């Protein structure tokens, strides 16, 4: 099943609970929470307290995307807050094996995120350990950016590589996905689509999410 993960980064921050409930009711599979530290990316967003609050409000898995330097320091905090999936950036950790092992020891799904210009071979020694791979399809830091077209090729190359290795690792993509371009992306073979502004900045977020979920069924 193709999963849709609405990113609350583009929701109205004064109405996050309502946004999450709307998304859940309209068919979202996962809630994506972007953690930015002002160092790895220039922007600042949420901390573990928000994750803990949302854990009380939804039964959907919470997908915590750590765009932070020194992710090892934060993994236990987000684990305690109730994250279900935790992804860290290849570019932000010098000890990937150690950090991915820590996430798995805490019984969370462990993902590695790659920026658009980071080559796939950076994860060749650790891919078998991963629960998912998160390909950034914009440069991380903000919602509402354009999907970088060269990422289509990267998605299909990763898909084929996973198949060659006879692994079953879902590919999550993040950035610039909307109702208008999602079909092309689904054809590339993604398993999980993060969508922020393509849901929450639309005139009718609920209707848009329902339409997106409907479209995914054609590609399952
Ligand atoms: C960007 C974040 C994304 C962001 C995507 O750095 O990692 O999760 O919310 O937003 P859209 O879908 O608007 O590109
Ligand atoms: Zn994200």
General description of the model:
By secondary structure, the chain is an alpha/beta fold. Helices cover 35% and strands 18% of the residues. It is built from 8 helices and 8 strands; from the N terminus they run E-H-E-H-E-H-E-H-E-E-H-E-H-E-H-H. The chain has helices at 16-25, 48-57, 71-81, 96-105, 151-164, 182-188, 197-200, 205-216; strands at residues 3-6, 31-36, 62-67, 85-89, 109-114, 132-136, 171-174, 192-195. Strands 1-8-7-6-5-4-3-2 form an 8-stranded parallel sheet. The N and C termini lie close together (6 Å). The model has no long low-confidence stretch (mean pLDDT 98). It binds D-xylitol-5-phosphate (DX5) and zinc ion.
Number of helices: 8
N-to-C span = 6 Å
Strand order of the largest sheet: 1-8-7-6-5-4-3-2
Cofactors, ions and other ligands in the entry: D-xylitol-5-phosphate, zinc ion
- Number of E strands: 8
What structural class do the secondary elements suggest? alpha/beta
- Overall shape: it is globular
Overall pLDDT metric: 98
SSE string: EHEHEHEHEEHEHEHH
Query: What profile does the largest beta sheet have?
Result: 8 strands, parallel
Uncertain regions spanning at least 5 consecutive residues: none
What integer value in Å does the Rg equal? 16 Å
Strand content: 15-25%
Helix content: 25-40%
